[in-house]
Amino acid sequence: MTAQTQETRPDGEGPDEAELLAAFDATIARHDRIEPRDWMPEKYRSTLVRQIAQHAHSEIIGMQPEGNWITRAPSLRRKAILLAKVQDEAGHGLYLYSACETLGVSRQELTLKLVEGRQKYSSIFNYPTLSYADVGTIGWLVDGAAICNQVPLCRTSYGPYGRAMIRVCKEESFHQRQGFELLSTMMRGTDEQRAMVQESVDRFWWPALMMFGPPDDDSPNTEQSMAWGIKRDTNDELRQKFVDMSVPQAEALGVTLPDDGLVWNAERGHHDFSQPDWDEFYAVVKGSGPCNAQRIAHRRRAHEDGAWVRDAATAFARRQQETVQRGSAS
Ligand code: BYC
User: Fold this and answer.
1) Cα torsion angle, 121, 124, 127, 133, sign
2) What burial class does residue 77 get, using C-beta atoms within 10 Å of its C-beta: 0-12 exposed, 13-18 middle, 19+ buried?
3) Are 213 and 219 contacting, i.e. CB atoms less than 8 angstroms apart?
4) pTM listed for this prediction
5) 6 falls in which pLDDT band (50, 70, 90)?
6) Residue list, ligand 1 pocket, CB within 6 Å
7) What is 105-152 written as a DSSP string?
8) pLDDT in tens, 183-229
9) Where does this protein have coiled-coil stretches (predicted)?
């Protein structure tokens, strides 16, 4: 049985709810994709809206910490690279808002929920960027964490989300390399530059670990999201993967990761590591991080300042439609 659309069958009889659910469950069990016109349980739809909207908001809010350095980039080359990267994040936000719209919510609605604090975005973007090294550290660690989290999402059960992720991941891996390249250039520079990199890594390491969400035992959504194939790995599995990936990269760079508990465990075949400060995580998620108010105020201002662009685009589209209609009537 394949996933059923919500339309009635040719005989005029619509499938009942139990049949629809069975078809949905069978599609998930086969690791096939659910598409926008397929029937889906309401909770599956609302879970996707929650996750994809948060993801889209993260991309858009995530433009701010790095955007902060565009006017102060140390060279024309670095400025061009940073501009392109921040523009990519805007593109990622747009693919994701479009994916979310296929679930019956409008972008306007999502934006209002963000600026009114009714939907979340990633905790990581509530930390400030204090030096240019932070641009490299965000690329290396934050985009690195994003890749760990998002590569499995290319196989998520909802078609439009998985397809958006494929392109996003390609760009994110490019972003990660540019971050690593910036940091390795600084590490080959002066003692002062090396100290800047280390100080930046010390600030971003723990917030990067928090990006994967609370430990599995405290994650209310993981079990159901895994059962539905929305998430393919748990928060702790992805965090472990990120730590294992980052240790040799830190060695190659010549930086120290700020965790005395970070050691190779031969028996597990993974690194052991300490837990981040989960009280800090919950405080940041609830709005008390160093930059929450600033990030939302900036987003709200940009939305309000952009009202005339939306009005003009809507008027232009209406005018074009009228011209087409006049043409086909004559
Ligand atoms: N920050 O049950 P859980 C980027 C919330 S952007 C804030 O484990 P779930 C980039 C969670 O929402 C990358 N909130 O939830 C951009 C839930 O609250 P609600 C962004 C968090 O959904 C620019 C509650 O805590 N990536 O890469 O199963 C420049 C309980 O959590 C966080 C994505 O959005 C957090 N870190 O799992 C550079 C990836 N963690 O909603 C780079 C897609 C948890 O019940 N999202 N919460 O009120 C996901 O994979 C999952 O949503 C998460 C959380 C793993 C994040």
Assistant:
1) negative
2) exposed
3) yes
4) 0.94
5) low
6) 50-51, 54-55, 58-59, 62, 89, 120, 122-123, 138, 142-143, 146, 149, 210-214, 219-222, 225, 231, 235, 285
7) --HHHHHHHHHTTSS---GGGGS---STHHHHHIIIIIHHHHHHHHTG
8) 999 999 999 999 999 999 999 999 999 999 999 999 999 999 999 99
9) none
